[in-house]
Structures
1.
Amino acid sequence: MASILESIINILGQQNLARISKQVQAPEDKTQKAITDISALLTGALANNASKQQVAQALANALDKDHDGSILDDLPDYINNYQQGPGDGILGHVLGGNRNAVEQGLSKKTGLDIGTISQLLTIAAPIILGALGKKQRQDGLNLNDLTSLLGNEQNQAQKI
């Protein structure tokens, strides 16, 4: 079975990737590459954060309560209205004070400007947590399973 990281592009599908590209006014190929890079980075950051028991428990609770995967049920609506979504809040929890440095690094890596990267991060974060929450719910993952999954995802992310 595909990892969360591998399945993000499949979850989005070509139409939603095109919708995101249009929303941020960037070429589709660069948008797809940036979403892949963002997914790898955020998954790795989640894994790092979840290595602390208290943070892992908070993540599991958040996935249970707020990120159960339902966002994936109507991606076009979410993408069109992402500014009202939880992206910035999620990024604050996951990246903390490192967001600017992350945006600069992703901008250099992808060739997209920092403003576009910021928008893509805000769009992608809830989708990634939604995919993780859906997997947690579908597979009945407990805290140890979730932590292990994130560790595996981090290893996968390092290959990108």
2.
Amino acid sequence: ILVTHDLDEAAQLADRIAVVHRGRVLQVGPPAEIRNKPRDLTVARLVNLRNLFRARVMGHEADGTVLDWRGRRIRVPVGERLAVGAEVVWCIPTTAVDLAEGEPSSQTAGENRLQAELAAVTLLGEMARLTLTLPEETGERIIVSLPLHRVQGLGLTPGRRVAVSLPGGAIHLMPAPTAARMDGATVRRRGRD
């Protein structure tokens, strides 16, 4: 048994992780499951997921569920049926987000594309963390982790507009609490939030 606050260390050494918060076990599972499919928003925050967003279920199609994320359609191949109109929180690992070739309007199966602006590049050894902002004044940011050689090869610098790909298979849905702290600000139910 190893007790640690370092998720990377736990993922390297453990076959199973138990996320404990305030004396309660919130989720138990393999490291990849804990990171990619947290049970709820609390677990997602405790494992330091950076891409957490609120959305509303628009409907269901043959290939999955369609979400309304601030006026954008996001397709997620979800097996379970969520109630139309239900609020959810969706997340995607920083390593699953990719920069796409071509225009955001050229959707391919299982892929959600959108336009963003590169706000910052943080070098982390052989990897780089990119902070992307959406063109609208929503305050939403998407964090992307890419190998440094790819960032340098593409000439990615702050201010550049990029097409972003959010693979539907990497998106995980969680129930949305009625009031939640996301990105340091309290988000309450209102309109299309």
3.
Amino acid sequence: MDIVWFKRDLRLQDHAPLCAALAAGSVIPLYILEPALWQQPDMSGRQYDFLSESVAALDQDLAARGQPLVVRVGDAVAVLTALCARHKVRRIHLHQETWNGWTYARDRRVLAWARDAGVEIIEYQQFGVHRRMTSRRGWAGKWDQMMNRSCLPAPDHLPAVDVISDAWPAPQDIGIANDPCPHRQQGGRAVGLAMMHSFFETRGRHYRAAMATPVRAADSCSRLSPYLAFGCISMREAWQESQAQRALGRHGWASPIKSFESRLHWHCHFIQKLEDEPVAEFRPFHPAYHALEKGTHDAESRLAAWQQGRTGYPLVDACMRYLDAGGWLTFRMRAMVMSFAAYH
């Protein structure tokens, strides 16, 4: 048997690792819930809730095809070591991932373990992000080439395998703080697809102008960011749906669709920056700022005021309170609140 390690690719459609593994035989479809990841400062309870819903939806889709998702809780190396030994696994298929420094270090540990254990790790490109580029020249053309390849169909059937799952932990069981977000988006592929279709059917008609305003953007933006981030929908699916809508030639839709497609490019463009220079997570891009002192004696209290929406600047505070309640903010307001945090 081979393992397909699901990470932030929580779907069956357009899933190259799953298709390749099934072509070779039986598959253990695996998700590893890593408690240590959820202790990192850039993780939150609302993200965990969205993940939980998305994993549950993936499990249902897999079960309907003959084999539910196998969930294991723990350190990735320990989980993979045990599974590979018990089930004589020699290949692990997975998508490349560009996330935070913790996952980068984990992936390096997994690769080192696999070399020593004689297990082959096969990674597949998921977005328009490329590993080990020596130059950004030609990147846009590579992005277009990948997005225009045909999406891979979901498998009709998975052979059943005799592998038990761990119970999915409640957030408090792995140390995740209570994080109420009453108006956040729900996870799962079906919800993401409904969001995409409603955007192209009605909501996106005024996207180009409305995306700049924090009031109108809530309805007029695609709201696909979390579904792309967790892989409930592939970037290629979103791109090709946009291209199909463009081909319909509906009156008034050319401009909003063009703007939407630009944002799909930007999604991968900025992730590519982190892929090329992972240290950007921990220090400024510009070396002149590397030795800069971080704030004044009251920097922590100012940061808390920013987080809680009580800076005294009405637009900043309104956006931060909206973000706290809903978990989402249009990208121009994200840029505004972040520049305020950095400069003010």
